[in-house]
Amino acid sequence: MNVLTQPFFQHALLAGTAIALAAGLVGYFLVLRAQIFTGDALSHVAFTGAMAALAGGYDLRLGLFAATIGVGLLLGGLGSRGRPDDVAIGSVFAWILGLGAFFLTIYTTSRSGAQGGAGTSVLFGSIFGLSTSQTQLAVLIAAAISIVLLLIARPLLFATLDEAVATARGVPVRLLGFGFLALVGATAGEATQAVGSLLLLGLLAAPAGAAIRLTDRPFHALALSAGLAVAEMWSGLLLSAEAPKLPPSFAIMATASAVYAATFLIRPRRTALPAAA
């Protein structure tokens, strides 16, 4: 049986490609802006939001996106110029973890009979279980994230590399910070379907980290991060399809980690990073 012709794999490949593209683009700026801890916090927010929705009897995607985008904007409000600091993130982190445990208890004791495996799918992903409608929605959301990120990429890069000069030249630095955090939140909610909340930080950080190690040219690195994320998604899905006992989320993350580790064996010629976008 050729797995490439199976609907479940075609759905996973289509949705995974769109999700990886969005994660690669957003992840580049997440790494460049040194906001990895924010991504880590939002991975736990994704779980808490999904559990809250399930405990209340709603679609888990509603909880995923409402929680990740909402908390992302909250973190921006707690920091300066739309950039949350570690203290604010740590405080929200602890609160979110407590809420996650609370909603998990409610869900497992009152509603788990209806969707017994939903909690596990949120933690570890369920990309091979996407229906046609879920795939279409995932592609549309990921495409919207990618388009918005590309539209703000130049001013966001300017604000990231030289915030003071960008402010002086009239760039809405704080608004860009909030907008970017909303995109990170949406991407976190979206990527949870592919790799789960426990591993989504790897999809955001590993391709971007590898791209930044390979080139100092910002827009080359942005494109490379997106390309690596998509290639790693494809490789992980094919690997998992050929070895059914290998979970797709693990295969995707293992591939991403291997690529990042391989960059330490390469010593590319370094160039000076531009001071302005």
List keywords for this structure.
277 residues, mainly alpha
Helical stretch count? 11
Oligomer: single chain
Structural class: mainly alpha
Order of helices and strands: HHHHHHHHHHH
Using DSSP, what is the number of strands?
0
CATH architecture tag: Orthogonal Bundle
Assess the beta-strand content as a share of residues: under 5%
Q: Residue share in helices?
A: over 70%
Q: Please mark out the parts with pLDDT under 50 across 5 or more consecutive residues, or reply none.
A: none
Largest sheet: none
CATH superfamily: ABC transporter involved in vitamin B12 uptake, BtuC
**CATH class term:** Mainly Alpha
Instruction: Assign an overall shape.
Output: globular
Description of the structure:
The protein has 11 helices and no strands. It has 277 residues and is an all-alpha fold. It has one domain: ABC transporter involved in vitamin B12 uptake, BtuC (Orthogonal Bundle). The protein starts with 6 loop residues before the first helix and ends in a 15-residue tail after the last helix. The model has no long low-confidence stretch (mean pLDDT 84).
